[in-house]
Amino acid sequence: MATFRGTDGTLLAYHRAGAGTPLVCLPGGPMQASAYLGDLGGLTARHELVTLDLRGTGESAVPADTTTYRVDRQVGDVEALRAHLGLARMDLLGHSAGGTLAILYATRYPDRIGRLVLVVPSARAADLEIADADRRAVAELRRGEPWFADAYAAFERIWSGAPTDADWTAITPFTYGRWDEAARANAAREAAQINDEAAAGYYAPGAVDAPAVRSALAGLGVPVLLVSGEYDVALPPKRAAAYAGLFARAEHAVQPGGGHFPWLGDPGWFVRTVTTFLARP
After folding, report:
1. How far apart are CA 1 and CA 275, in angstroms?
2. What confidence score (pLDDT) does residue 187 get?
3. Could you tell me the pTM of the whole model?
4. Would you state the CATH architecture of domain 2-135+195-279?
């Protein structure tokens, strides 16, 4: 672990692993400790991963002003990390809600980005509509799974507008390409690593100006790779393709049988896809 100071002096932690061209990685959650990213399926064999613990998460300090948990107010932390690393430009990866932070950084500092990798990014940055029908169509692909009946019933209650807390837990298998022991272990760790107060403030009012983001994406000259999973109900592939279409220079890759954590679903596919993109001249 190493540290640097955020824009307001908060002590922030980051972790380095692997060798090769640096790839700065922003975790999702929102506001989950970066440890869940691991080595991103073995990406450390080709790149040095620099994973940031966002303020108030992992080994980073809790800020004096908790309104700085708002995602747009953390863009400065990412810029401070780039400067601390001594990189004129950096390749940046954002997963899930971390994709929102990556997008806001790229639109504010486009000349400091080499390439941008968005792994099943949250649609909230651009206010991309995902209808219940979109999620239902993806969920139906899992009908043969042994856990399907209970998880789908929970989804039905969520869609009806009358869910319980247990229903949100019950649909967890839909976010993984395979609901096996590794997936269950990851889900358990994920729940334990999120700062709930910080998560509640991440998308606080005013955090994202979606029309401005959409306009900026249309003129963004940075090469973008958007990765989605065939089975991901959070960002169904059809909506992911529409998301990629908002960017000036984006390509969309769908992991067959993949979920919301594609480096777990098929590590080989994930590493090949990301390294091929990053290696292009």
Report:
1. 24
2. 87
3. 0.96
4. 3-Layer(aba) Sandwich (3.40)
Confidence class of residue 173 from pLDDT cuts 50, 70 and 90?
A: very high
Domain map (residue ranges) of the chain? 2-135+195-279
- Reading the block at residue 251, the tokens are 């390509």
Shortest CA distance to 232 belongs to which of 185, 181, 190, 171? 171
Asked whether 135 and 231 are in contact (CB, 8 A), the reply is: no
Token match 């107060």: residue?
197
Contact 8, 64 (CB under 8 A): yes
In whole angstroms, what is the distance from residue 2 CA to residue 19 CA? 16
Beta partners for 154?
A: none
Among 51-55, 67-71, 137-141, 184-188, whose mean pLDDT is lowest? 184-188
